[in-house]
Design brief:
The chain has 313 residues and is mainly beta. The protein has one helix at residues 11-14; strands spanning 3-4, 28-31, 43-47, 50-54, 63-67, 72-76, 87-91, 94-98, 101-102, 106-107, 111-115, 120-124, 135-139, 142-146, 159-163, 168-171, 183-187, 190-194, 197-198, 201-205, 209-213, 218-221, 233-237, 240-244, 256-260, 265-269, 280-284, 287-291, 305-309. This is Ring canal kelch-like protein. Residues 1-23 form the signal peptide.
Length: 313
């Protein structure tokens, strides 16, 4: 079962990191207990108040588990092999991990399921299109895995849907704009697919924002992301999609921008205290928890955890 990690008690880690009020920027950030290991280029899946941090650019395999309610970390069974730039989503108490890069930059078709009650990993039906740097989200009991890159870093428009109940795959309408290092978030029964880069090049970041309706199996265009970027973390809270951090070929971003699907518009929020990319986020009781990631362009890693409260001053 999980190996408990003692909470870090350093004052700096727990200090409040309140962003300055800058007119239209709203909300406040605070520090939380650092992860027990530094990571980047991870996938994060969350359910029932826990966030599961999978993969690592530098080859670490331990599963990091963060209890957002108690601000406490533990470690689960290691992933079966080193993987980075993988995609993950949770459904009915199981964490599913799709593809990613293995053996350097080889795009994988492997799918694994983590069973928390047993602390084990089990294989599942392979994804039809091998890829890394894709993104995944759950709508109506199905997990949608969208775009990403094949071996060699070329993008794919693949949009494939996994049914956890019968361990099977079906094809859905391809994403209009192929990309990698993108964000995919489920909100109001639809998927918001935002940002990313072309063929693995952070110098070719995108502001594209495309909306998928699973009822009609069709795509529409949304208002573009104000700050084009890739490798961002994203999460849905109170009907809005928050896009946080990311990188280009010259800088790491701290921007936080939220998209309202019904209004088709973006608002600016208080920036990340620690600019990062290759990290993930989860939500719990009205707050957004951001975990790990690299504070420098390209490689790098951290154990940073920062928590956002949208309505705080």
């Amino acid at each position: 079962m999980h190996k408990t990690i003692a909470q870090l008690a350093m004052a700096g880690t727990m200090a409040m990191l309140v962003a300055p009020a800058l007119g239209h920027e709203v909300g406040a950030w605070a520090g939380a207990s650092a992860a027990p290991a530094e990571r980047s280029e991870v996938a994060v899946a969350e359910f029932e108040g826990k966030a599961y941090v999978i993969g690592d650019y530098n080859g670490a395999t331990d599963l990091l588990i963060y209890d957002m309610a108690s601000d406490h970390w533990s470690v689960g069974a290691p992933f079966p092999y080193p993987v980075h730039h993988t995609a993950a989503a949770a459904y009915k108490g199981i964490v599913y991990v799709f593809g990613g890069y293995i053996n350097g930059w080889e795009a994988s078709s492997n799918v694994w399921a983590y069973i928390p009650d047993k602390d084990i990993w089990e294989p599942r039906a392979s994804i039809p299109t091998p890829r890394g740097a894709a993104a995944a989200a759950v709508v109506d009991g199905k997990i949608h895995v969208i775009s990403g890159s094949s071996t060699g870093r070329g993008n794919t428009r693949a949009h494939e849907v996994y049914d956890p109940l019968d361990d099977s795959w079906t094809a859905a309408a391809p994403v209009p704009t192929a990309r990698d290092h993108l964000s995919v978030v489920a909100v109001d029964g639809k998927l918001v697919v935002v940002g990313g880069r072309v063929d693995g090049d952070p110098g070719r970041n995108l502001d594209v924002n495309q909306i998928y309706d699973p009822v009609t199996d069709s795509w529409s265009e949304g208002a573009p992301l104000p700050t084009p970027r890739s490798g961002a973390a994203a999460a849905a809270l109170d009907g809005e999609v928050y896009v946080m951090g990311g990188e280009s070929n010259t800088k790491v971003f701290n921007e936080v921008e939220a998209y309202g699907l019904s209004a088709n518009s973006w608002t600016e929020h208080a920036p990340l205290p620690t600019a990062r990319h290759g990290f993930g986020a989860g939500t719990f009781e009205g707050k957004i928890y951001t975990m790990t990631g690299s504070p420098v362009v390209g490689g790098g890693k951290s154990g940073v955890v920062e928590v956002y409260t949208p309505g705080a001053e």
